[in-house]
Amino acid sequence: MKRRKLKLEELNRISVEEFQKADKIPLTVVLDNVRSRHNIGSVFRTGDAFRVEEILLCGITATPPNAEIHKTALGAEDAVRWQYFEDTLEAVKALKTSGYTVFAIEQAENSISMESYRLEKNKKYAVILGHEVHGVQQAVIDACDGCIEIPQFGTKHSLNVSVAAGIVIWDFCQRLRK
Length: 178
Fold this sequence. Notes:
Elements: H1 16-21, E1 25-32, H2 37-49, E2 52-58, H3 67-73, H4 76-79, E3 82-85, H5 88-97, E4 100-105, E5 112-113, E6 124-130, H6 138-143, E7 146-149, H7 161-177
Parallel strand pairs: 1-2, 1-6, 2-3, 4-6, 4-7, 5-7
Helix pairs in contact: 2-3, 2-7
């Protein structure tokens, strides 16, 4: 069986304009004080791939335009809608006022394993990913509707924030598109 690698022009990707008009999954991604611009760009690129509604950049999280963000986003920062909030708690408040169910992606007491949380098709969701060393701020966790934890079976206690974002966004996409 032939397995020729496809050329970019064969992938039939939509334009930025088509992306902005396209239906999105009802998911907003919040970055709480993420310091690495490469991680931020990666989240934009994953958000583009799975058509998230929006990315909220909070606190020290850098915003486009930025060469380091662009290096990993590869233009996705131009397609995916984003907003900046100086304070992540203000972003959570705005999301809840707009009817979102908000989850921190964090290892916490009474967290829900990613394998067992349930989503409702008619609801809007937001997930918060935190600082590369400190995670999601405790005050932000306290303001959330719950915490979702990614099961891990190795020796390390955490994942890179952009890897965690990819896992979570993909999982939400799978559950919300069915």
